[in-house]
Structures are given as structure tokens and as C-alpha cells.
Amino acid sequence: MLPPRTVSNQVVEMVVEAADRGGVPLHELIDTLSIDPTALRLRKHRLDWEDFVVLVERLEGRVGPARLDALCAQLPSLAPSGRRLLGVFVSERLLYRFVNQLLGPTSYPMIHTTWTEEGNVGHLRLRLRDGLSGSRTVFRIFSGALAAMPLFIGHPQPSVRHQLTARGGDYWVQLPKDEGLRARLQRATQLADWDVLLETLEEDKSRFLEANEAMWRSREHVLDTKLNAAQARWSLTPRQLEVLSGLALGLSNKALMEELGCSVKTIETHVTELLRRSGSESRLSLVATFWREL
């Protein structure tokens, strides 16, 4: 059985944002690849592992290894006061366990991930599954991300050592002594600017909701525009448009069946008709045509 081949939108977004911060035009990185820049920025679909490797290695070629590490280590964060408050309730150990044990396997399923702790040292072991191209560059950016992770909760960067190959990496993170929940709660009651922290969090929440609403409006506008173009060009029925919308967003036949309330056979029939009307040889080419040519 072939290994899963797609990297999650969140991991791809980290590299895209690193390119933006480094002043590297996205179109230069995806040249010759079957990737639509609009869909990539709007996080419309997961990215094939082979294309992801090319994307990261091209970015390294433009900015150099050291700067690539620094750019990928700049994780999204809250306001300083919000980070301090979050750090009261979330320990570094809990943060690392959550990211490496829960998020990792779903974000990059083609990499076998294990996280273990011994004393004050956490050990992340990554191994690329067989059948996929290796890349030392891809595995090196994990080191910067691990070091920057505690910044999200207002904690200092830890020491991170690594040993890398083209097909994996071992990372050792120096973890601080866990204070325990009681100690963190006691520290929370000693914060002199508690009211300010709560007020700041409320402001952060409002800004997040506004930004999220604007992002979804933008996504829906782009998708609706392309669906209208597809209907005009291929003379699609309303149900075929619903199936095409799901395909464009990366849904499987099973997910489409649950979303539209019909059988898998019905979905397969609609997909076959979409391929015929669009002149596409596969679902992949259909989605590529949808995002790039309509």
C-alpha cells in the first residue's frame, strides 16, 4: 500500500508565510508545479509531498539554509499579555505533547512520528515512510519550529539538538522543570495586570473573529466565481456543481456522500460525468483545471 502523500494546509502555510517574510515571490517557487497560487494562499487543499519538497528546497535556494530556519521558526503568536496568561495554564511539556503526538500525525501523515520524554529532555523522532523522495532541508526546518514553539505561550526558547538525514531526523529538546498546575495558578493570582490581560484577550478574540470572517468571505467569493465559470463552460447541473465544489476543496467520495446525503455510487457517477464534460483524465487534473484555468 502506498503511503499518504499530502501535507496539511497548516504546514504548507508556514512555508508560504516564510516566503512572504523573506521577500520571495510565491510564483517563483511554484513555477512548473501543478499548484494554483490563489488556492494555495486560501488553503483550499493539501499539498502533495513531492511538490512540498520542491517548494521548501527552492525557498532554501533563494534565502539560504540559516535564514530559512529563522523564517520558519516565526510561529503565529498572541499579544504579549495574552501569551503570559496562556503560559500560566499551559506548560511546555503539554504543548509539545499536543503538537507532536496529536497534530503531527495528521499534519504530515507520510512521516512516522514519535515523542518521548526522559527527565528534562524531550525526543522527537521523525522517519519518512518508503516510496517518497527524501529531503534533508524539509527535516531541518522542524528544528527551528521546535525551538520557537514555547514562544507561543510566552516562554523562552529551549536548546534543541538534532541529527538529520534525507529521510528523517532526531531532535532533543531541553525541557524546563514542570511547575505543576498549582504553582501556575498561584502565579496567575499574583499577576498585577490581571484586568489588563483579560481585556487584551477580549480584544485579541474580536480581532481574530473579524479576520476569520473576512478570510471566509474571500474564500467563498473565489470559490463561487470559479463555480459559476465551470457551470457556464461545462453546462453543469446544480448537483454536479455541489460535487465539483467538494472535489475542489479536497473532499473524498466518502466525505461527499456524507455531505450530500447520497450513495458512493451516485458520487462516482457525478465524478465520471464531470471528468467527461471537462475533458479531464483524472480527479487531480479536474481540480487543477478548476483552480488554474477557470
From TrEMBL:
GO biological process, one term: regulation of DNA-templated transcription
SMART domains recorded: HTH_LUXR
Keywords linked to the UniProt accession: DNA-binding, Transcription, Transcription regulation
Keyword Transcription regulation: yes
Gene3D superfamilies, sorted: Winged helix-like DNA-binding domain superfamily/Winged helix DNA-binding domain (1.10.10.10)
TM regions (residue ranges): none
Domain (HTH luxR-type): residue spans on this chain: 229-294
GO molecular function ontology, one term from the record: DNA binding
PROSITE patterns: HTH_LUXR_2 (PS50043)
Name of this protein: HTH luxR-type domain-containing protein
